[in-house]
Amino acid sequence: MRRFLRNRSGVIGLAIVLFFTVATLLAPVLRPYNAGTDRNLAKRLKPPSAEHVLGTDELGRDVLTRVWHGGRVSLSVSLLVVGFSAVLGTALGVLAAIMRGWLDLTLSWFVDILLAFPGILLAIAIVAALGANLTNALIAISIMGIPGYYRVMRSAVIGLRDLEFVQAAEALGSSKFRVAVKHLLPNALSPLIVQVTLAIGRTVLTIASLGFLGLGAQPPTPEWGLMIKAGYSQFLTAPWLSIAPGFAIYLAVLGFNMLGDAIRDHFDPQLRT
Amino acid sequence: MKRVLLSLLVAFGLLGSAFAQQPGSTLVVGMSILPNTIDSGDANDSNAIAVTRQIVERLVELAPGNEGLVPGLASSWEANADSTEWTFHLLQGVRFHDGTPFNAEAVKFSLDRWNDAANPYHFGAEGKAYVGWRNLFGGFLGDGSAVSEVVVDDEYTVTLKLTRSISFLPSLLAGGYFGFDSPAAVMAAGANYGTPSVGSVGTGPYRFERWEEGSRVVLTANTEYRDGPPPTETVVFVGVSDPTARLAQLKAGALDIAAAISPSDLDSVLSDPNLELVRGEGGLNTSYLAMHQNQKPMDDVRVRQAVAYAVDRVAIVDAFYAGQAVAAEDIIPDSLWGHADGVGAYPYDPAKARELLTEAGYPNGFDTELWYRNSGLEPVIAEAIASYLADVGIRAALKTEDWAAFLADYMAGNFPLYTLGWNADFADPDTFIYTFYGPQAVRRFGWNAPEVVTLTQEARQVPGQAERAALYAQVVTAAHEAMPVLPLAHQSQFFVVRKGVTGLVPNPLGAFPVLAGTSKAQ
What we know:
The complex is a heterodimer of chains A (273) and B (522). By secondary structure, chain A is mostly helical. In chain A, 74% of the residues lie in helices and 0% in strands. Chain A has helices at 2-6, 8-25, 27-30, 63-99, 101-116, 119-130, 134-161, 164-171, 176-187, 189-212, 224-232, 240-267. In chain A, helix 2 (8-25) crosses helix 4 (63-99), helix 4 runs parallel beside helix 7 and helix 11 packs antiparallel against helix 12 (240-267). The radius of gyration of chain A is 22 Å and the shape is elongated. The two termini of chain A are 14 Å apart. By secondary structure, chain B is α+β, with helices and mostly antiparallel strands. Chain B has a seven-stranded mixed β-sheet, with helices on both faces. Chain B has a six-stranded mixed β-sheet with strand order 14-18-13-17-15-16. Chain B has a four-stranded antiparallel β-sheet with strand order 4-5-7-6, with helices on one face. Chain B is globular. In chain B, helix 9 (301-310) runs antiparallel to helix 11 (350-359), helix 14 (430-437) runs antiparallel to helix 16 (450-461) and helix 16 runs antiparallel to helix 17. Helix content of chain B is 32%, strand content 22%. The two termini of chain B are 28 Å apart. At the A-B interface, loops of A face helix 10, helix 12 and strand 16 of B.
């Protein structure tokens, strides 16, 4: 832990992540306005002021409140997505590695096909087929994430499975699955943690991209990408509409990436001194 | 003041055409999209008609800047007693761009070509659909068409015989679709007439020069034009689909005239010293919130009335249209006749809305869907409406889909609530009353009121405006009670031009104006 704290960018990343987590959890308490329904058409598109620190949007809603609530949407959806694809990708990766043979071949083949598609394009195709809303975007991005975890976990487990302690466990009569759960998985966790932390930042960005394209969250959900989309046509007259959610995305992605990098350095044996 | 400005513009327009043509002068017009055809009879969107309007002319034209009619290729017209035969007296000595004469035979050629699916130049099998003709005249010959025969009386007189009385036939013929093409050109080009390779040939102030597919349509001045050559030598139409990009190009000087600019961008127009807003009077269009009665609980009139009370139309219009629209009182724009005395809009009254919902058995409101088109102001207005509905407990999820799917779904009654707009096809209340409350009402809104449909049909037959107005007043009153659709706003027509562009007069129908008198100071 002390070694991690010496990594300055890691600490900054951790601080940003903690800030976002706390802030979004407390959003309903901290902001006096309601993100969805506090319409005030007489006060629309007002620049930042004491009353509305980041100005108001097209319906006269408080932009800071919406950015704040947007954090709830982005972070909770990102965690769900990453959780889903991590569990599924890991399960499949470990399964392929311990079973080998035709199962490994088939799974790897499917994953290679998934990898051949650019991620966002695959997500757009899935959303276009299922219909544009946040749930479908969530499914699409989750599927998009599976190959990464599959690859990482499969190679990690393959690296471990011929080591002596694993062979010892097998020689003592442990089943393949017991070996996988008790011995292989715990030892392959560090690359998984790195992968997850980095993926959250990437997922925040993907969700915003789909929202911007009209394929993710639908209005009046306060979602960052959607807010940038609503504001960009008025960028010259009301720049705060896009800048505020844009900066929020920037900060969130930066935070998770810095944290992810630091964790990776932390686990990298070649960097250990 | 606006009227003064407008008449000044008209005056400049007329003066403009009297000036000698400036050699090499060019006007670049930015549209939302380039036409799909410039065969005017087969055109079915405003971008196509914007181009064909410069090339071909109609028997009857819309007066510049208002909804009146003025002579076009016909100098005068009259009807028999029951309006079943209409005779048009044509201008003499007019020639098409290819030099062939414009006469009664040419009028008959085009009318027969549009009306008769069996006509050798109809080209229905090749994909020409004549949507405008079908909508306005009820169908093709022998299959619903109001026109039974076109008779050439002499070289410059032609008579349309109708299957049923239509008292406002000249209004229909002023529709942007019905510009007269050179028969020789249509015969020569065949089904390719109106495509980028051959263009079209008419009698208008500009002639077709070339069409670079996906890029631009170029027209050049018709130096033989009967009112004198237009002051600008070349007019170029380009398609820029994003309104913000279109405005940016106008600001950069790449365009001289931009159509379909969003009212929300007007602030940045007004603050730019190089740009000017050209505004028309009383737009003949209505945006609306429909409530489809096939979907529960929209079948309950109290729920529909509650929706009408819940939405503050005036605040929405004030907020989003930048002064370029008025809140609608009924489905007919204010500048047209046909309103019912004493029947205004529902006032904004959320308490009354809640009361009605409670009466209808929804004290805690209900969940529903509000569908909108993803274009221009429509998303943000839908969001505003949804927030007003939320105030009284109606939780409307906002939904959208692409236009082709939307068209099919709203007509199938799949949307409980949806917002859309309607542009008049011609300057008569019929285009609103018949479209909204006529035989299509049951599909559009699930509103099944045969007695109202009968009134709309009767109003098409009686000749006098006073009798028609009395019938329309009954229809408007019935619609006010039953509330199948909540009219929201009538938007005025405007264009944004570079300073120095004069003689552009917007038309209330939303049709792009003829550029016969439009020029740019060099």
